[in-house]
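User: For a benchmark we're assembling, each entry needs the component sequences followed by a predicted structure for the full assembly. Here are entry 17's components. Please fill in the structure.
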Amino acid sequence: MEVSLEQAIDKRVHHHWFSWLVGQQTFWVSMAAVVAFVALTLASDVFATQQNLFNVARNFAFVAIIAIGMTAVIVTGGIDLSVGAVLVLSGMVIGMTMNAGMSIWLAVPLALGAALAVGAFNGVLIAYVGVPPFVVTLGMLSIARSLAMVLSNNRMVYSFGPDQPALLALGGGFMELALPLVDPIRIPNPLVFLLVVLALASLAFRWTRWGRYLFAIGGNERAAIVTGVPVKVMKVSVYMVSALCAGIAGILEVGWLGTITTGLGQGMELTVIAASVIGGANLSGGIGTALGAVIGAALIEVIRNSLTLLGISTFWQGTFVGSFIVIAVLFDRLRSRNTNE
Amino acid sequence: MAILELSRISKNFGAIRALTDVSLTLNAGEVVGLMGDNGAGKSTLVKIIAGNYPPSSGTMTMLGRPVHFHKPSDARREGIEIVYQDLALCDNLTAAENVFLGRELMRGFGPVRWIDYPTMFQRAGELFAELKSETRPRDLVRRMSGGQRQAVAIARTRLSDPKVVLMDEPTAAISVRQVAEVLSLIRRLREHGIAVILISHRMPDVFAVADRVVVLRRGEKVADKAIAHSSPEEVTGLITGALMAA
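Assistant: Structure for entry 17:
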């Protein structure tokens, strides 16, 4: 049968927006989050209160910001185990420099600079020396946390010099969103930062060369090389982005807690990777979305929060989160099997 | 004038001599079948033309002008495109994205620029139509048949209006029906005045589509003759060494 050019161009793989939607892992994870949300609202008087939702939103924002950077790394087929350590390093740099009386306007760039330097180091070893990402970032997990300990002499830092109020407001403050008919909604600052990072990442993934090259590298690295994609530069940049996200989260978290110890962010890399994977990122590369990572992080936090509210031992948290990882990947596997046949 | 002319190309890897004094002339709109057994030097020769590494000695000229390639992008800039054996496609991207990979079309105002998907889909659709392939620009490569994948890889070479297209074993791993599709794609390239070097083990394909056959054996050119004046039996003899030269 003869198909005209216009028809061929317009023809999509997915014939209908609904069939496209239900094919998305992000959609199902969002549904799971919504169901959990509704169930909790009914099961607990406390869950849907503004204060609790404020806390949930703020808590998951830290993980979600890092999970966006992690998703970019995972899309290239890599992994970044050093994000928890970078978070504490960035937090410690801002803590120590402000403790010494430095202005926040200098301390923030220094902290982000430290994070970017770690990311660049990871990226250069991975892209130019060819060390597997798992090994490089595993080493960095240890190095960055150790540097944070050296920097602080393993002390707790809780006074941040003349700009202390600014730092605390940055991480612990909120924006008021005035709505008609209801009380103004308070949006925690970390959530505002998350929304900005999410918007930037979503645009970058789809509409920039940088974003498309992430997917090309994850899909077929050799193809990317022979078609002239600057694969090495791209890899360095993606580990820098991941570290930058961890650095931003570190600064915000210090501002929220009003204190920093070298134990901050311990084991966080696993939660972050879990959020990315639940949100649809494929650990073998080539697939993932920023929105999915955020929803994955939200789902984990809702589970965590609900266990606390329902009086279930928090020891169960790992079981729930772990099950979700396996179910999400299993679901994806089943779905791709269906579409391949 | 010849589009591409190789003159006494040799390549050593340490003590190993992979190519010895190979000369080859390629004219516009000509399909040359490059044949030889494993290790005969086919891929070394192709990699030299593609700019993967320079020859140890010998010269290359394009349209009479000497060229020296240090990296694949040098060759590409001169109008030499390669269709790799594995096609070098990203399964997770659409056909159009693969065609434009590394050469995405952008639009925007001033410094704010973004990928111009509508034009990419349009242009890719035109290329597929030109190749008379049913490939759809928005489809993911993952869901495509072998013949459609070939069309994507070949459409990619057509983007830059190339002079020479190198095809490495394009028919090695696909079904009979798809082979016919690929051979007709090669004929399309020839119609556009492009010189094609077809590296293949498959005698019927070479005899179906090529104008000339070049045989390499142990790094030396042992035959270079018109298909019309040769036969599969003769070429087989040349490849194996039963016939010394023709």
